[in-house]
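[step 3/7] fold_predict: job queued, chain A
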Amino acid sequence: MSASFSLTMNNHMITLLLTIITILSLSHSSLSTVVSHDGRALLINGERKIILSGSIHYPRSTPEMWPDLIKKSKEGGLDAIETYVFWNSHEPVRRQYDFTGKNDLIRFLKTVQDAGLYAILRIGPYACAEWNYGGFPVWLHNMPGIELRTANKVFMDEMQNFTTLIVNKVKDENLFASQGGPIILAQIENEYGNVISSYGDAGKAYRDWCANMAVSQNIGVPWIMCQESDAPQPIINTCNGWYCHDFTPNNPNSPKIWTENWTGWFKNWGGKVPHRTAEDVAYAVARFFQTGGTVQNYYMFHGGTNFGRTSGGPYITTSYDYDAPLDEYGNLNQPKYGHLKQLHSVLHSMEKLLTYGDVNTTDMGNSVTVTTFTNNKTSSCFLSNANSTNDATIVLNHRTFTIPAWSVSILPDCKNEAYNTAKVRLFLVHIQYIYLLFWDVLLEQKAATNDTSDYLWYMTSLHLDKNDIIWSDDMRLRINSSAHVLHVYVNGEELVSFYSIGYEYGKEDSFTYIFEGKVNLTKGKNIISLLSATVGLQNYGPYYDMTPVGIVGPVELVGKRGDEIVIKDLSSHVWAYKTGLQGLDHDMLYSETSPSVRRWKTETDMPVDTQMTWYKTTFKPPLGTNPVVLDLSSMGKGEAWVNGISIGRYWPSYLADEDGCSLDPCDYRGEYDNTKCVTNCGKSIQTEYHVPRSFLRDDVNTLVLFEEFGGNPTQVKFKTIGVKGACANGYEGSTLELSCKGSSISAIKFASFGNPLGDCGSFGKGSCDIDAQPILIKACVGHETCSVDISEKTFGSALNCEEKTKRLAVEITC
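[step 4/7] structure written:
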């Protein structure tokens, strides 16, 4: 009886459990998203969609910053966030993994999901990304028999292991769209088409293996390969670049996808600051959608910071701002952010027509084209003028439109212009508040110890007497080197510090050079010590992993015997090697609790302009919530830590050359490249370094600097960056939004409706004017944000304006 009752209860329990499992299964199934595609667009649950995406790399910001960055991206009109996965961050030591803090990929993806956005996951696992060693862990290089990014079993086994690890971690959290998660696309490899020819047939075999390996992961969403024209099906090949309107997928059933629309460019030590205008980025986007594109990703939407030693290159700066719509600190980079936000709104309003409408393009001559999307007697139009010098006049539907040179006008109803890529509306002006520092602790250091870092010592001894063949009064040391920075010491005294200039990105032999300098040797034993320093390992180019770094040899002494040149090769001598510098590992002088530092009696005792020196101070955090930066303009070269966390390398003493910058505003017209709109000639490319608020404590904090070249820490200071004011341009028939983002609008410095003159900070009234100040004071002062309908209904009719479209120019104070 008891056994029968127990069995019956067990059967009931089993039935109940099966029912619950079925319900949960059905519930999960109902939450899943079917992602597919045809030749026209990506399909989400069978509906063609426009996807506007932006790159945010999780390790280049902090978990505390992610929600705000993603929120601003969504407010800016994005549908998706794209990120690489960084292998060397997650597996710094073989089979030892790190998914904590900035490396918490799952938390980042869930933050994207919580915001209601899609995600594009570029697993790679080769990233490039101006990231150290392209994202590969350096231990790969040291595995016997390995060759990277080619048909090599040792490498492919490691690549498959890591790719499968990432896929399984994402699957375990149900983060693919097929599981109800945000990820709608995944990428395998990265820009392999740029280098595949260097690897020959083995490269083609590797590419095909990548595709098959990826498909075998069964993630339930499409895979993509960027910059790979021969990507095998079912992989979708995609475009990267400044412009992708001429790109055509390699299969008629693949949609036209732009994985990297470069919103700016990265910065390198000793270089100039690159800019890409808002007008040109918008022009490129509009042309892409005019020519059938439906998925577009900004690289970057927020660039962020290369914390620690993560920057690649070599010579990539700590800042990875990229002139992106969200700047390094997460502030709106105006006018780019606002100008693109308006474009996104217009494109979304036309989604059905762009993805389902019949397309007709008419060449009007002189680089002018009209493209019409029609569906059920409803039409949208793009009017593009690719001429870089002349404006164009177009008559369409009995209306006349003037299209500025190098611009696109978008007419959602083919009658009224809702947007023109050349008509930029909003600017922000930032202000900095300065906080001085007081230094009290220092350690001077020249010895070497075993450590893994940017630094490697090469040391040998040399015995000389007066009968040595090389002995003379004029001896020179000649070194064949590919060290990014070279320090030469002879008998404990530094001979020279030298660094390579003229590096060309992606050119593997740019750092190979011969150093030669006079050396004073003594009779008897001499010690020659060479300190090689790297500034980010190369991340791009065919066989980039094979690029030598350090002292490649030979190392020679060059002397004279009468008129005869005599050379003594030291390469065959016994050399000792030591990695790192004292303090960067076991002593950890950057730690707040380091026992190895000693206190100076007064600040006046503190040496300045001293090489290989450690400095330490304490400080209280700047008040408020604005982003914090550390001004290191008075320092030479080194690394900085706040509360034991590295905020990155610094090198403000390396100045750009004096030539190549224009004093005039950049002309957005004409094709852009990263040398077109550069500024900052003759200056350091980076003097300010981001310190995320999450790195700081409410009370006492510690700053430690390791100075390699010599600098003056008494001039180091913290700053906060806030919004001081904003300028805006708006055209009749549109709505202008003014915002101080975090503070209220305190005053309207200028406001004119008509044909105002000048630029932000120097606006003036034109021949046709209505004083708009009283209306804007009433609508905006005291508010954080206000919106204004730009029309005669709001401001009245201006005299002498004739029939031209009027403009509203505003300058506000925050």
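[step 5/7] annotate
Residues 635 and 711 are 4 Å apart (CA to CA).
The domain at 455-579 is CATH 2.60.120.260 (Jelly Rolls).
exit 0
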